[in-house]
Specification:
With 73 residues, the chain is mainly alpha-helical. The chain contains 2 helices and no strands. The chain has one domain. It is 85% helix and 0% strand. This is Putative membrane protein.
Amino acid sequence: MVLVLMCAFTTVLNAALEARSARRSTTAALLRLGASARLLRGAAVLRGAALLLLLAPVAWGVGQLTTMPFTHS
């Protein structure tokens, strides 16, 4: 089960890093328009917390399902 959770975590981390690089130009534009760095950091924290709160239970459930034994009745 630990392996499944580690794979799920790695997948989420990879997706977050790709999204960050995709948002780089948008972030630069917002800074040019006058958005504060504090606001952008707060938005990043909110996105990270949402990912953690939504995907951690899903990863745990998948881990539980993959470690369940198959039984035939």
